[in-house]
Amino acid sequence: MEEKNWVEREALLLKDRDQHQAASELSLWLSFLCTRVK
User: Fold this and answer.
1) Got the DSSP string for 1-38?
2) 4-29 pLDDT, tens per residue?
3) What's the pTM value of the predicted model, to 2 decimals?
4) Please, are residues 22 and 30 in contact by the beta-carbon 8 Å criterion?
5) Which domain does 12 fall in, by range?
6) What's the total number of domains in the chain?
7) What is the rounded CA–CA span in Å between residue 6 and residue 15?
8) From CA 35, how far away is CA 14, in angstroms rounded?
């Protein structure tokens, strides 16, 4: 669960930057986490 909090914090940092880039990086992160959970 602590990992999820870290990801959420990263997502907030990304939102402060260019929105398009943030969405791209966030979707990569979600894909990475999903593959790790499996």
Assistant:
1) -HHHHHHHHHHHHHHTS-HHHHHHHHHHHHHHHHHHH-
2) 888 888 878 777 766 767 678 889 99
3) 0.42
4) no
5) 2-37
6) 1
7) 14
8) 21
